[in-house]
Amino acid sequence: MTTQFPRPISPLRQRMLEDMAMRGLREGTQRDYIRFVRSFAAFLGRPPDTATAEDVRRFQVHQAESGAQAPTVNSAVSALRFFFSVTLDRPDLARRLVLTRYARKLPTVLSVEEVGRLLEAAPGLKYRAALGTVYGAGLRVSEVATLKVDDIDSTRMLIRVEQGKGRKDRNAMLSPQLLALLRLWWREGRRRSVLLPHGWLFPGRSYTDPLSTRQLNRAVHEAAEAAGIRKRVTPHTLRHSFATHLLDQDVDIRVIQVLLGHSKLDTTALYAKVATRTIRSVTGPLERLAAVMEGREPAG
User: What is the pTM of this model?
Assistant: First the structure.
């Protein structure tokens, strides 16, 4: 049997890894950045630290001609800007990279009834509790996957989210209904000996590892199909639905911003465009004009 040894890491990649770790970039971000730099090097056919301004231009033309979508192009720009400006100290090359503008689509949102059907169809109590946490607390799927048992504070009715997006800690809401669901899972998990004290709240295939985001994605797709929901549903759809349903309940958008962990209000304001009850409750200018003309309302 042939023994396979791991491929050695080049000094350039090692330097970039150190630069990213020193600046606190998340592991997922580091993997993405390395992948895009590797793709750039494959396009060049030579080490990426030998790139010229014309090479950068050719690479972006190649992306456009090959049909790369705007999110992919912009992710590559972020990775290469870091590589050029930080690792190579070549800000002149970083400035050559061009972001692609694209229309922002409205998020898919489920009705309350659809969310109920989806959770009922979840493949097992663990996944129902995990997806219920995405919807019930508005957490990102990566945040739910890495929750620890000790992050559930039933005394203060809060969920502690450590090192969320942007490496920020925050508190999320814990409703009585969600707490009851989590307690059901806690009792089941303890009975099956997969929940350890101070361990992962949602362990993966091994109780020493957290549930993966891929497993949660697969679970939500299975549940949506079983529930007969034809919309394109992902775990993030439940987070969108959380925000939209709160807005429909007249919760202040600034409160929703805090609950979602958004740094900018503009990001949260997107949900105002899909909150149907909020839209229906607005009195249109033609209705007000009619009321003024009929003398039912003073002109102002």
Answer: 0.65
